[in-house]
Design goal:
Shape: extended
Number of strands: 0
Largest sheet: none
Radius of gyration: 19 Å
Oligomer: single chain
Strand content: under 5%
Number of helices: 6
Length: 112
């Protein structure tokens, strides 16, 4: 999955930037905060989360593990609020509540 995404995005980058393909990577390597963000997203958010998900599916049933992946948007909202100082709107509160309710209902019904 990761290899397919790497090849696919590099092909798109090659098509879009053609002669400036190598120069298109300059912003990544010239700014340390961007480079650290890319490493964080590649290692922690992708690989580590995927390994944790595989561990979860080996210890709890598949329906429960899959339903907990629905909490990812809530984590993204919280990260945006805490790290990027984004505003928490009533719409976000309602949508997060709906997600939590649905995850609860799926896990409640799958335990029976």
């Amino acid at each position: 999955m990761f290899a397919t995404a790497t090849v696919g995005f590099n092909v798109i980058n090659l098509i879009m930037y053609n002669k400036d393909y190598v120069k298109s990577f300059a912003p990544i390597f010239s700014d340390i905060s961007v480079l650290l963000s890319v490493i964080y997203l590649a290692v922690v958010s992708s690989i580590f989360a995927f390994l944790l998900y595989n561990f979860a599916t080996s210890t709890i049933d598949l329906v429960s593990a899959a339903s907990f992946s629905s909490i990812i948007p809530i984590c993204s909202v919280l990260a945006g609020i805490l790290l990027l100082n984004e505003k928490l709107s009533p719409t976000l509160i309602i949508l997060c509540a709906i997600i939590i309710f649905c995850v609860y209902m799926v896990n409640k019904s799958s335990s029976k």
